[in-house]
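tool_call: predict_structure(chain=1)
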Amino acid sequence: MSEKLQKPRNSRSRWTLDEIHFVEKHYGKIPPAEIAAKLGRTLGALGIMADRLGVRCQQSPLWTEKEEAVLRTHYVAGMEIEQLLQLLPGRQVCAVYSRAQKLGLIRGKYWREEECQIIREYYPEHGTAIAERLPGRTPDSVKLKANELGIKFLGEVGKFRIWSEDEWILLEKHQHLSVAEQMLLLPGRSRLSLEKAKARLKARKKSGQYSG
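tool_result:
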């Protein structure tokens, strides 16, 4: 009795058009086990249907060390599959997932440039609290990415860092740039820090205290 209950719910029923369309659309894009579970089919039955529809991977050449290095670097980083395939010409989506699984690789979530820019601008001042600005990101993942980008949190109370003479000169010389561009020139300085420094610089120049 228990064995019957464990069998997939549709193991003996005919395939419906909706199920067939689902296999055509998703096979090779998501793990076969997930498709089988969703449709209530066995992996064997799913494989047979995939073969009939011509969507199962054909036998592919052996993977090279260079290709596996691409997976270890970009698959793990969460690169979009379309971009990944451009780095792996001749490989099918299902082959990529299959090889990654055999290598024990877990796909991360790819960091877009816009997200990295938010970290550059706001992390020095707000730290992991900026996770609220990054849907789907956790404070821990934000901290790890900030470390990877070489950006430190400078917002703790009592950790104000005095501006050096070189920084003042650099800021004055590049006042025409945007705050984001100035932050690249002055790593470790937050948006708020730059805005306050520019206000102080303007006041100094107005009073004649700073000649630049």
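agent: The chain has twelve helices and no strands. Proceeding to next step.
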